[in-house]
Amino acid sequence: MGAQVTKQVDRRKAISVEKKTLYSLHESSGTDFPGSTYSPADRKKWMAGLGPEKMHINKIVWPGTHDSATNKIGIPGITRPFAQCQSLSIYQQLVRGTRVIDVRVQEDRKVCHGVLLTYGIDVVIKDVKKFLSETESEIIILEIRTEFGHDDPPEFEKYLEGELGEFLIHQDDHVFGKTISELLPKRIICVWKPRKSPQAKAGSPFWSSGYLKDNWIDTDLPSTKFESNIKHLGEQQPVTSRKFFYRVENTVTPQADNPILCVKPVTNRIHNYHRLFIAQCFSRGIADRLQIFSTDFIEEDFVDACVGLTYARVEGNT
């Protein structure tokens, strides 16, 4: 018992030190970067606002959400706080400016986060289609994966193609060098990551797992996650040289051996440092690697930061 108490005390000290480390970096370095003062006139249509004919797919800084379809997961006030990473519906996130959606499913096509369940994938599809019907030039990256420990939904590709086929941008390395206007009226890059089923191949309506990569680490320590993100991003090629999307997640994760297990208070340790991260990418000479930037509980300022940097790239100011 004494050893456990000591361990908890040490962990609380480590968290406190790391929070102070990020705060000090924020105070000493600032958060200015090219495009940092830009704010889109309409977040729902920010890609249209920047000019689809000027925006190459590989130069967009894509605002994304982590565990996107968890707004109604679990039981309210009981299990939901342990698994909820977003408070908005998929449609509301897209309207706010999100352009990368991260969805996990199990065999019966229910969306899940670990052992907790929420609505079916049909709710996600309905929200996506509603958003697409209200816009003309917004491209979405829709990542769907089979959750760890679960089996793939049967005939899932057939189901997705039946629902989204008219919007799907087929797997093709040439897409990265194209502009949005060159891909329209197709609107969705759907990355399907099954656990046991075969991976999608070139020319398929779906993109295989190798086209959306990240280096996720399981930690609730904010400075550790921040520096890990910087390190792994720095190991990537510039966006103009890659034929895959690379994601950085501005999140930290509750740990089973820590008294604080609810997502929101834990992820808040890093949540407000998205502008600091982008500014540090410039300071450390790796801003040309940044591409997908995801977060929990996405807010307008996070979207504005990503759109601002995209604007700077489009205008040649980076």
Automatic annotation (TrEMBL):
<dbReference type="Pfam" id="PF00388">
    <property type="entry name" value="PI-PLC-X"/>
</dbReference>
<feature type="domain" description="Phosphatidylinositol-specific phospholipase C X">
    <location>
        <begin position="53"/>
        <end position="193"/>
    </location>
</feature>
<dbReference type="GO" id="GO:0008081">
    <property type="term" value="F:phosphoric diester hydrolase activity"/>
</dbReference>
<protein>
    <recommendedName>
        <fullName>Phosphatidylinositol-specific phospholipase C X domain-containing protein</fullName>
    </recommendedName>
</protein>
<dbReference type="InterPro" id="IPR051057">
    <property type="entry name" value="PI-PLC_domain"/>
</dbReference>
<dbReference type="InterPro" id="IPR000909">
    <property type="entry name" value="PLipase_C_PInositol-sp_X_dom"/>
</dbReference>
<dbReference type="InterPro" id="IPR017946">
    <property type="entry name" value="PLC-like_Pdiesterase_TIM-brl"/>
</dbReference>
<dbReference type="GO" id="GO:0006629">
    <property type="term" value="P:lipid metabolic process"/>
</dbReference>
